[in-house]
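Below sits our specimen:

——
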Amino acid sequence: MKFAVLLFLALVALCIAAPEKPKLYTTKYDNVDVDSILTNARILSNYIKCLLDDGPCTPDGRELKKTLPDALQTGCEKCNEKQKTTSEKVIRHLMKERPRDWDKLVKKYDPNGQFKKRYDELVAKQQEGTTTKA
């Protein structure tokens, strides 16, 4: 009996001491076809305008705009794997194909350059990977 009480107290202590996992971002928009957005200049421009407060936002654009500052701040720790992969794909695309828009987004969401280095390294790693495969 004493052992059971001791075991119960130990489990309670572990639950209390264990760090709480961060609440993940909504998965509601995880199945959006990002490739079709990235290859359609008009749609991509509309998303960028939304993020820059230069145009209206779709519901998924509003959600992205709401989550983006926190995702940058936390290194996307509340993202699931699909969201991380998709985010990296979008960032690489913007940096390579739309550098002016990327610079505007960085200026708005990372004015001190606090997070930009992480994404520069991400693109550099990806480029190294394609160079070594060739």
User: Anything to note?
Assistant: The chain has seven helices and no strands. The two ends are 66 Å apart (CA to CA).
